[in-house]
Structure prediction request, 496 residues.
Amino acid sequence: MKKTSILLACFALFIGFSQNKTALKVLESPEFHDEVKSGEVLSMHTSESGLIGVVRNSRDHLLFDIFNESLGRIKNVQIETDRNENYCGNLSFDNIIKIFTVFSPSRKERILYCHEFNINDGSHKKTELFKAEAEKNQPIFSGSNKRQTGFAMSPNGAYFVVSTDDIKKNSNSYTVRVYNTKDLSLVYTKKYQENIEKFYEPNDLSIDDKANVYALGKLFLEGRSQKRGGKANYYFVLNKLTALTYKTTKVEFSNNLHISSLIITNRENKIRLIGFYSEENVRGIKGALFFNVDSDNMTISQSKSFNLPESVYKDLYTETKADRKKDDELSNFYVDYVIKDNLGNTYILAEEFFVTYVYVSNGMGGGYTQAVYHYNTVLVLKLNPNGDLEWGRSIFKRDKFPSYNAFLKDGELHVILNSGKNLTDKEDGRVKVSKGWFESTSLYDIVYNSNGDVIYNKIQDNKNNTYYLPFYGIFSDERFITISSGVEKKQFLILE
Prediction:
């Protein structure tokens, strides 16, 4: 990484913070402009040589930019897309960003493309991976799960897997296709969870360095309802697929408790399942748990489980209410980050996520139903090297968009997010991290030390400044980089 003196010559320092000022060095890049209006950021990735690649969406194009370490743009590529070609996923490794799109030339035909962007030389290649037939205009990637469940890459980057839904009128099945990452050749294809009676909902996907695929999901007992008769109407199953074999096993916790959400982690090709359990209902959160998986024999052992600590509730409620609420359950939490430090401690961050629907009138006697996404409270848990809970905290926030990111630096956990201009300090010591109706916003760095003590640091007031999107950021070479919102001009924020 370049020396600080060089960076200071290329960036302007932010000044004039209120409340606590972040201890991180805060810099921003020069603005850059696009010839076409850009939409969302699809992927950001750092190459082995330190170059940064960014892929964004626009109405008719994929925009690919390359930036040097000083975040000066050195290449801009505009790739025209077809009218009915839509983004569906992304994967990155070494110097390549892979963007997957589905082209729908007709109501029944689907074509999956892989766009490969080389960060080092700026080249682009578009490859057709496969064609599929859809029934009654059905998507091949479905569901509103918070995680990307259709694509995964092996830890060594040698393989990636694509999992598609093959739902027909009277049957339910799924297909995985494993590809060689280097030349995009098909390694094998395998169907799983073919069933005419029970519905399966994908929840997570993983692949190891030997091209073994692990697909985690809910298998419903009757129909597709989450609960029936006041009890969970599903159980989790873990599927293992290879070129020659297919095995599935039920993930069980307790007769009196059930698993409300679960994800796969794959570190050093060791499979572990991490999630939350409930005593009351399918969306409730009583505590956290994780399972170790013997991937050779497909046996699962419960390793640890624990209730949410009282400190989580004290961050959310008044002290009196927290004492009353500590036996209640939270709801709708899904793991976003599992971060391990060099001492063997593990930090788990999960966000409350759910979808509601509102009716929008068009003023002419009609209207339509619109989905509203809720990205709310964040849980922060720390496990010691033995897997025991050391502490737990929570961040009381409300948002309609993916809004936060997290990384470890110098033994401290940083949570970066936008909130109201001034965090609300309650009389009981709580801090409310959310925005009022007419309040402007600010960007914050919420820092936890190894003991779970928290400091709320302001990075900037967003009014009259560039508005940045922490969710799309990347942490590499001990610095966090994220990109701004905006349609015609963009800018980078750097925290180091």
